[in-house]
Every structure is written in structure tokens, then in C-alpha cells.
Amino acid sequence: MITTITTFRPPLSQPGFRLFDGPLCDMADVNSGQIGVVGMPSDWTHSSRLGTRFGPEALRKATT
After folding, report:
1. Per residue in 21-47, pLDDT tens?
2. Residue 5: which pLDDT band, with cuts at 50, 70 and 90?
């Protein structure tokens, strides 16, 4: 008997909160002379201060 295991991953969606109520756009649409702000969740730079990955979402919540 062969059992097939499938994993369903939902499609990526826009975040519920936007930083400073700014527009969401694709990075390919940013032209020369424009500034893009990207929230990048990351905990890998410091092993004793976990939780920094939640910072970008907290900033988005605070500005909406």
C-alpha cells in the first residue's frame, strides 16, 4: 500500500497592517530615486533576544 502525503500551503497574502499606512507595491516597481521600507522579521542575529521577528508587525499595528 502506498500512501501519498501532500502539504497544503496557502498562497501568500498581503499583511493585515501596513507600515505608516504606506502603499503596498512590488519591489520591481520601485524606481531610481524612490525609497522603499521593508519590514524583515529576523531572529538569527542574536540568540539571547528572541522575539525581534515580531517587530515589523508591531510597527504596522501601531501606525494604523
Report:
1. 677 777 788 888 887 777 666 666 666
2. low
Q: Is the dihedral of CA 19, 37, 40, 7 positive or negative?
A: positive
pLDDT at residue 25, rounded to an integer: 78
Output the CA–CA distances (angstroms, integers) from residue 60 to 2, 44, 52, 54, in the order listed: 46, 21, 14, 10
